[in-house]
Amino acid sequence: MYRPEIKLMECSIRDGGLMNKHQFSYDFVKKVYKAVSQAGIDYIELGYKNSKELFSPEEYGPWKFCDDEDISKVIDGVESDTKVSVMVDVGRVNMEDVKPASESPVDMVRTAAYVKDIDKAIAMANEFHDKGYETTINVMAISRDQGPDLDEAIEQIESECKADVIYIVDSFGSLYQESVAGLVKRFKKVIKSKEIGYHGHNNQQLAFSNSIEAVIRNANYIDGSIFGIGRAAGNCTMELLLGFFKNPKYRIKPILDVISEEFLSLSEDIEWGYHIPYAVTGMLNEHPRTAMALRASEDKDKYSDFYDSLINSSMD
Amino acid sequence: MYRPEIKLMECSIRDGGLMNKHQFSYDFVKKVYKAVSQAGIDYIELGYKNSKELFSPEEYGPWKFCDDEDISKVIDGVESDTKVSVMVDVGRVNMEDVKPASESPVDMVRTAAYVKDIDKAIAMANEFHDKGYETTINVMAISRDQGPDLDEAIEQIESECKADVIYIVDSFGSLYQESVAGLVKRFKKVIKSKEIGYHGHNNQQLAFSNSIEAVIRNANYIDGSIFGIGRAAGNCTMELLLGFFKNPKYRIKPILDVISEEFLSLSEDIEWGYHIPYAVTGMLNEHPRTAMALRASEDKDKYSDFYDSLINSSMD
């Protein structure tokens, strides 16, 4: 009933951190890491590796930078088979901050890039690979970049890149299952030497179904987060993924427990999940930044005006 | 780009009423009817037609009974092309309460039934048809009834029933897109003289994607509700359906307005939507009643214990 090749990546701290400047306490991150380990989840992403010259450690929490020492602080002493991942954005990392894998608690480095930056991403991913890490390239905002440049990027990735996994990232929560099926097929037609991954956003409540669709089309790496935490509408919920996949190594109860004990109260402090402005940016294939700005303003529930403003700005 | 045969049914008052004993004010229902009419939605379901001998009008609101006079009270004077529907459950209606269509503001009567009650449902639907109504049969809890009895029911419906539409109802929010695709195919193989409909529940955040899947497989009648209101996890959200369907007759803004003005505050009084106990009953293919009881108790957020209780009771 289950496909052993499927790997789950838990990215609550990394993607959820976009809603609180990555200011999760060490205690909280340790609890998440414990729960994820007990659940038998394959990978956990603990944050970004950003340059401290670009972002101030006074403004942002430790998971914006993911120093090896901070990672060790939360994972040391916990029994775990879960591998640790960090994400880098093209142009935001000091490459020398990433030590050889043999000297680091990190197992995987994921490079996030728009299609236009794919050359840089390939060079970075190859360098991380050569340092001994498992590597991925995460192609962001793909709902906006489906023209010939995407085909060129896919071919380049196959021929030039040493990354193990190439992710399709629906940054805007805009894809429907037919578009996901089409994209995975398009990637798999060219990419024969690497796995395909899928990272969804839940603007239109489609992150889970799109992840299932990606798996049906033979993507094997799927991202989720606990209770769906993540930027704006958030991600595919890990608890639903665990209820769906039949691999006996996965256990849902540690995730249910950490939701009861930690994420319910967190959801009172940080907003994520289904809100109409996020649904609107998703259905209009727009970046959620305008919706996030609206939600932080006193007009947060003026949906119809917000809809008009997006329609009008796209017609200008 | 759009299929003109597709019809949308708005069922906020009927399905949402299961969470408040159908005690919506006339004013509220009129506002919903106005918004639905302005949105160009094809049908609105205003409640159940239940016998007052079985349910007390002192305990339940008018939309549990849908007297013609109550319906007229909210629809009269509103410009509208939206047709009015009511639902009946097998064994809960006095047939003589349903007057001929020519004497009633109601356009459609939908008969909800489990597979085991299909004979009764067919007899009732035929009677409503003969009284001049558009009619449907809604086959409930289909995730539990997928054996040979379902095939027999489908064949009987095609050969004996005068209903215009046969609905596949995922009462437990348990179906995945592959199961929806399979069910629509199974129905359409036999049912040639009627349309197929789909009514989803959102326990696993799959109501919208499953509705899309049903449409891809040529179901033409889709149920939704404003902001997803409905029993337990609720239904497919109408605003997402309107964002998806490209028929120019549909307008999303009246629905966004009524969410801002009415449904946000309502959601503080009545609970519906994504909650872990509903997700758990969905993934375990169980009726949500145990989850609803939990949510009404002081243990409402003890998810892991709830999960255990369901697993253990299913093994007894």
Tell me about this structure.
- 2 copies of one chain form a homodimer.
- With about 325 residues, chain A is an alpha/beta fold.
- Chain A has 2 domains: about 5-270, Aldolase class I (TIM Barrel, Alpha-Beta Barrel); about 275-315, no CATH class.
- Helices cover about 40% and strands about 15% of the residues of chain A.
- Chain A has helices at about 10-15, 25-40, 70-75, 120-130, 150-160, 175-190, 205-215, 240-245, 255-270, 275-285, 290-295, 305-315; strands spanning about 5-10, 45-50, 85-90, 110-115, 135-140, 165-170, 195-200, 220-225.
- In chain A, strands 1-2-3-4-5-6-7-8 form an 8-stranded parallel β-barrel, surrounded by 4 helices.
- In chain A, helix 6 (about 175-190) packs parallel to helix 7, helix 10 packs antiparallel against helix 11 and helix 10 packs parallel to helix 12.
- The longest helix of chain A has 17 residues, at about 255-270.
- The first copy, chain A, is globular, with a radius of gyration of 19 Å.
- At the A-B interface, helix 7, helix 8, helix 9, helix 10 and helix 12 of A face helix 7, helix 8, helix 9, helix 10 and helix 12 of B.
